[in-house]
Every structure is written in structure tokens, then in C-alpha cells.
Amino acid sequence: MCLQCSFEILTILMCNALLGLYLSSSSALDLQDITISKSRGMLYPRDSETREVRSLDGMWNFVPADEEYPSQGVNDQWYKDNLNKVRKVIGMPVPASYNDITTKQSLRDHVGAVWYDRNFFVSRLWAKDQRVWLRFGSVHYKAFVWVNGELAVKHEMGHLPFEAEVTHLLKYGSENRITVICDNALIQTTVPQGKISEVANDNGVSIVQSYSFDFFNYAGIHRSVHLYTTPKTFIEEVEINTDLANDNSLGYVYYTISVNGSAANQADNALYARVQLYNREGEQVANATSDAKLSGMLQVEKVKPWWPYLMHPDPGYLYELKIELHGANEELLDIYRLNVGIRTLSWTSTTFNINGKPVYFRGFGRHEDADVRGKGLDYALLTRDFNLLRWIGANAYRTSHYPYSEESMQFADRHGIMIIDECPSVDTENYNQALLGKHKSSLEQLIHRDRNHPSVVMWSIANEPSTREKNADIYFEYVATFTRSLDSSRPITAAISGSAIEDKAACYLDIVSFNRYNGWYSNPGRLDMITKRVIDEATAWYYKCYKPVIMSEYGADTLEGLHLQPSFLWSEEYQTELFSRHFKAFDALRRQKWFIGEFVWNFADFKTAQSYTRVAGNKKGVFTRARQPKAVAHLLRKRYFALGHDMDQCSFPDDLYPYIAASRWHIR
Ligand code: GCB
Question: Where is the signal peptide, in residue numbers (predicted)?
Fold first, then answer.
């Protein structure tokens, strides 16, 4: 294994030149569809009467690999002992991106592997008749994990969880060690893609990572690390689907459970599940016993459907589903609970409906991004962000441009915020066989992780792929067909930036989303060149594919505190006026029934790679990076509540229209 592992790391750093060759020849070849292996397990770790969860978050030891000799740690087997025996280590918080924690430019811009380790005790009480799992919420981009010097798991793809059973690797009643390599290198066959090259510097050469996507390639152990126990035979997977009948007064919860463990093999017929559904008050509203395939249905009288924020006075209603797995002689083997929202989705060539009612999306593209922490999970930030989403009256966001934390998906369920759930394929180009496999795998892992969240209403299979390129059509046909084969209950979209005339991919989608920066990248400074162009482009998309259309990105970089009247690029006045010109277009489009949503770029300012087009990052936020409103936030808030009122008769917050004057005033 060590050889293979060191080979993989070296490959990333050395194969770029070869890859260039491979890609130029492969683009002449036709792409074939490719089968990928599927993920298993990965239920969110929750304790119960039969399970215990232990966090390994906190301070870990950390050391970057030498850029000149990246495979040294693997060759010298650093994972066989504490890292501080071989190198001087520093403390590194988990979860967090490592880039902005120290004051060193070399770490912020490090390319390749970094090493983490920490020691921890496992109680001898855990040595009883059970299994222990090690689970990472996400490590970006590639991870190798050893427990007590033995390889436990490796995983490729940031922003997605992975886990492995470590029962046999742990020392019970004793101290243990976990060692992680995290490699941030992006090449043409990673998702997302990047390029690595050697560039001459003043003293020799540097390995330089470049990428075309517009956010900083933060890396590290980004989300929580858990150890958790399960019984020997346990609930490994739960899949939930819901439906409504009789004017939304009757709900159905369909469940399918998969079991892992010896009891599952030996006494197949003896296994069954007892499932119970509880309302918010903790009262049982339905219960059932599964069939022998461990699937079944619960019927809920007087159901409270899951509604989006401002579409109903009680949005985000969640039930709790308790699943008990029983073996022979009624023996209780395992218990797992999860939240369930009961809702239906449907879509046509002109509408998108939730619980039978048409939806108009008013939301944001976002990033997981903050100072110091980078992309590290932070409950304080998450809570503030959801408070701001509610304050501004948004009902949706897209997880641009990668899967967000599982914890954020739980927040969205609870707050009634609809999610367009995006896989990490951003600026996709150079379509090739290996990329297709990884792209499909990213969607498989995403859908596996998020399929039970009521907040997820759409899958986004890419952001701004090069859709006029050779093979874009066949590539996206494969990706879209694969996505539908995993989940036919949600529509598929992608945020497209190419023109409707040249595009070869959009019509494989169920909903067409387009990104355009009128008044910014196109005709900067020309506020009079926005409204008609937005209307014309949306109309072109509709008549190309006859699918509902969303504007998934529009916006303008804005330096907080810069005021210029008359408005000028980068000023708060310009952002406000640019939004207003878009609103006019959206209202004209809303009269065409097929225009179903508007998404601002971006929720908050965020960090990007260094570039002369970016002043310490992308400043298109409606909120600053510190999550304070820019002037435009107050305008957007008035619009989002007005839309909520028009569509769903929501009430207005008391402070939306501060008193101005006793006279009548005019709104154009
Ligand atoms: C886009 C991209 C987004 C960028 C944005 C911009 O079209 O989808 O990732 O950040 O433009 O501000 O340039």
C-alpha cells in the first residue's frame, strides 16, 4: 500500500505534462459511459440507545510535506509514529482550513500534501460486542488516513464525507493515534479541475497550482471527525421518500432500510424494522412494522407538510422518525433516528411546484467561506447566516460550487430554506473518461448523502461548464441520465454561462439556470444595458429547451463603504441600481410563467486566488465577509418580502418600511 500511496501523491505532482498530451489526444476520441462504484453507509453520526458518538475535533498536530520532496513522509512511513518524532509540528484546529491559521505565506499557498495527527484514548468499555467507525465530514481534496500506523481509509473529493470501520485497528483501554494526509493538488482529472506547473522563481522553481474557478482553494480537515459505535448488526442505510394526498391532509413516508452485519446474512427472514413517527410535540403520529425487505410506508393523518420559508406560517416542519431494527426472537439490535419533512415536488415545462403550489425562487449563490476558518465548519457562522437569510426574506440558495456541510443541510431543513444542491464540478472542460467517472462519483456521493433532506429540491450537476466544447453534449447526457437514475424525485439543473446559441448541454436538464453579469463583465458601468438583455436571454433559453428558466447569478463587485453619486462601478450605489435594473427584468419575466427564480451572486464577500481583478477577494456580496449588510441588502429585503407577499401572502416585518413622511410616496 505505501508504494501505491506514494505513487498516487507523486502522480499528482508529476503527471501534468503527460496529462496535457493525453487530453489533447483524448479529445479526439468519443467518450464512453463509465460505471462507478457506489458509496455505502455514511448515515450522519447520532447517538441512540445502541450507539455512541465521540468527537475527535480540537487541536491536532500538523506539518506540511516538503514541496521539493513531497513523498518523503510516505516513503519514511511517518504514520508509524507520532509526527513530532520526525518533524517539528504546529497546532492546527480541526475543523478548519489550514491556509489562514498561521502568518506564513508558504502555508497559505502550499501545494500538495500536509500531515495531521493526534492521539486519543479509547475506553476499554468500547471493547464489548460492537463495531467502531471513523468518519470525516470532509477533507479537501484527497485524504489518506492511518489508525495506529495501519491504513484505515483513503478518499478523493472534497466537501463529502467518508468513513471506515476501525474496530480491528483500535487499542481498547489504551492510547491510539490517527494520522491523516490531506492533499490539495487539483489536476485535469480531479473535480474540480486545476493545473499544476513548475515555474521558475528567483532561486530555482516553484510548484504552482492554478485554477480557473473563482474561489480560494482552501484545504484541510474542513468538517468534524467522529468515532462512533454501532451494534454488530446495524442500520447502515435509510432512504426516505414522501408524498401527500387529499388536499395535503394525508402524508406518506416510504422508507427502505439496509442492514450490515452477520445477523443480516444468517437470519435474513428474522430481521424486521419497527418504525415510529413523532411530531414536534413528541407525540407518536404513525407507526408500522416493515416487510422482510425492511421497507414499508407510514401514513400520517392531518399531516403538517414541509413548506419553504414565507410560503406558510409554519415553514420547515420536521417529524422525527425512529427506526428500531429487530432480529430473531424480537431482539432489539439497533436504533437510529432522523428528521423527516413530508412534501412533494413536481415540475413541468413551465413550473416547479412544492406540495402542488408553484414556487418562485428568491435566493443566493453562496460560499462556505470566512476569515481565519476558511471553509471550516463553524456553528456560530452557520447560525448567523441562517438568521440573515430569514432577515432578508430569501427562500433558497444554491450550494455553489460544491456540497456544503451536513450541518448546514440540517439548518436548511429546519428553517425551510430550499437548496439547489451542487456537486463540485465547476468550470468543467477538457471532457475525458477519467473526469466523467469522478464527476459521476461526486454526484453519487452527494445524492447518497443528501437524498433524505426535504430542503434539497434540485440537483445541480455543474457550474459554468464549457458547454460548446466537443463532447459537451454526450458528457452531460451521461451525467444527467446517471443523476436521474439515482433520484427521479428531484429535477436536475446546471448553472450555464455560455450563450444559448452555442450551448450543447442545457436541454439535457429539467430546469435551465443561467449566469450573466450585465452591467459588470458585459458593458461595465452601463445600467441602461441590463433589463432588456436579461429578458432577451431568459427568453432565448426558454425557447431553446422549453424548460423552466432561473437566473442563477447576477451581481456587481462592491467595496463596502464606497459611496459615489452618480453611481460608479464598485460603489454601493452602483450595486443597488444594478440590482434594481434586474428586478425590472425579473418582473417582466415573471409574467411569462416559465421564469421561476432569481439568485443573487453572492450572499457574502469571499476569498479568491490572488488576481488583479479581485481586491482581496470577490466583493459581490450583499453582506460583507463579516456578515454585515451592504446598502443593497435593504433593497433586496424589500423585494424578497414583496415577492413573498405577492406569491404567498406572507406578512411584512415591522422594520421593513421605517417611517419616512406623512405624505403619500410613489413607488415605480
Ligand atoms: C461566475 C461564477 C462564480 C464567480 C462569479 C464572478 O459566473 O459562477 O463562481 O465568482 O462569476 O463573480 O465572477
Answer: 1-28
